[in-house]
Amino acid sequence: MISPTETILLGGSNSYDIEGKPLTYQWFVNGSPRSNGASFRFSSTISGTYNVTLRVSDGGSNPSCAIDERQVQIRVNTQPYAELSVPSLIGTNESIQATVSKQTDADNDSLTFSWRGEGITGSANGKTVTINHTNPGTYTLVLTLNDGTGSSNGLYSISKRYEVNAPPVPTFSLREKAAPGERLTFDATTSSGSNNTALSYKWFVNDNLIASEAVTDFQFSDPGVYRVKLVVDDGRGVSNSVQELVKTVRINTPPLPVITAAKVTSNSKVTFSAEQSSDPESTLNTFTWDFGDGNTGSGPRVQHTYTKTGEYRVTLQVNDGEGLPNSSRTTEHILLINEYPTADFTAPVVVAPGEEFTLDGSASSDSDGLITSYEWYNEGELIGTGSRITTSLSKTGNANISLKVKDDSGYELAEGIKTKRIRVNTPPTAVWVSDVDYIAPNKGIRFSGAESFDLDGSISRYIWEFSDGVTLRGRVIQRTFRESGTKSFTLTVIDNDNLSNSSSSISGELKVNHQPLIVTETVLRSNSLSVKLDATSSYDLDNNPLKFEWTLP
């Protein structure tokens, strides 16, 4: 087997004749004479199978024994052929297949395929090979066919250059944080493409297309974290022609200032707290107070003392420290420093138990508002409401009556209290004594009410009323009775309070002695020297026991 243009030397010099006769040589190719001589150089530019015949002759007349032929078959090999199919442009890290197309071999030899190239992954044999490149650049892929004949044209190689595209590089700068409504510029002009190709641009915010220019302005209306994506395309249509870059921007949520404090108070020292203020993204680092009276303070919790009553507009400013237009927020709180109302009322100093009397609180006042509530208490127990009430006290002794008033400020502790002591009169106690229990008619006797007393005052009058119609006045009196018998009387004492229970009475009696009556014989007549004297029928109207004493002449 030879290849076209290749020459093979065929030699017939080893041919011989048994008889030693000289031989002649004649060479035929496919039956056509080509050469004479002991050797023959065969070549052909046309592939195919050729029958080369050597005919030798010893010159004898009988051809059957004077001529001999030997034939050899020579193949002029047809070089195999194929075309290579591979894209001229691919992307980095893109696996594509290069394939053999339009392969031919006129000799129908069994062909093998081998590949050479930097980007081959996997097997480098076969009709198909996979290539993949990490780095961009221009590469060559070589395919070699082998028909297995070993001839000089048994191999066929074909190569093809292709480009691995350098991906475009998207770049842009973006602030990490901004405020709602703040104008941000998205600038992708520093992005680059391979071979200075012109890039196309698309901007997305949270996957929503907002612009298709290299430079665009955008404003975020609401706080939150947003994804800003730049997509660049070099227009070359390969897998890495489109590249994207995603960055995030936080649109700042402003802080929320909250003032916790009393709205109305009567205390001059007020505590203000900003501890309920919040910021979902940051830690609040400054708290600035304006107390509305020309004074300021700082801190999450402050106290301030006001020197005057009145209404104050308190301002709190908080700052999240982000340095953005919405990093600072302010809120206000209206504070009323309320003047305590003044409770005052009129009431009697002393009253009788159960006797109704009037409590009048209309003299109460509030310098910066109106009194809206009146509550009356007896020893802490509610006994009535309203500016004026009628009540009574049943228990003697001292009672502490209090009036509590509240104003219209709405402040729970804005109240005034005043307490007065009212004495519930204890009636006097009447006590009398006399010199004796019995007296004789027309004999003077002294009556005394000096032992009468009044626990909560003094006795101003003593009145003695006797059953015989006589009335005397005085602490101590003197009296005589002309007639015998039991004499009843009443002592009434009256204290100095002039109330319905200011008097007290006690009754007593005195016996004005009756003279006993002697009942006996006034004349005795007897024949005996012994006489019985009998006074047993004597009696005493007062029923006092009688004693008898006889006097004899």
pLDDT averaged over residues: 93
What's the CATH class of the largest domain, please?
Mainly Beta
Q: CATH superfamily of the largest domain, called what?
A: Immunoglobulins
Q: How would a textbook summarize the main sheet? A: 5 strands, mixed
Structural class: mainly beta
Spatial strand order of the main sheet: 15-21-20-17-18
Tally the beta strands.
Answer: 43
The tally of helices reads 1
Euclidean distance between termini CA atoms: 220 Å
What percent of the residues sit in helical stretches (DSSP H or I)?
Answer: under 10%
Shape: rod-shaped
Unreliable sequence segments? none
Q: Which value, in Å, is the CA radius of gyration?
A: 74 Å
Strand content: over 45%
Overview of this structure, please?
With 553 residues, the chain is mostly beta strands. It folds into 6 domains: 7-76, Immunoglobulins (Immunoglobulin-like); 81-165, Immunoglobulins (Immunoglobulin-like, Sandwich); 177-251, Immunoglobulins (Immunoglobulin-like, Sandwich), CATH 2.60.40; 264-337, Immunoglobulins (Immunoglobulin-like); 350-424, Immunoglobulin-like (Sandwich), CATH 2.60.40; 433-512, Immunoglobulins (Immunoglobulin-like, Sandwich). Helix content is 1%, strand content 47%. A 5-stranded mixed sheet has the order 15-21-20-17-18, with no helix packed on it. Strands 22-28-27-24-25 form a 5-stranded mixed sheet, with no helix packed on it. Strands 29-35-34-31-32 form a 5-stranded mixed sheet, with no helix packed on it. A hairpin with a 5-residue loop joins strand 24 (286-290) and strand 25 (296-298). The radius of gyration is 74 Å and the shape is rod-shaped. The model has no long low-confidence stretch (mean pLDDT 93).
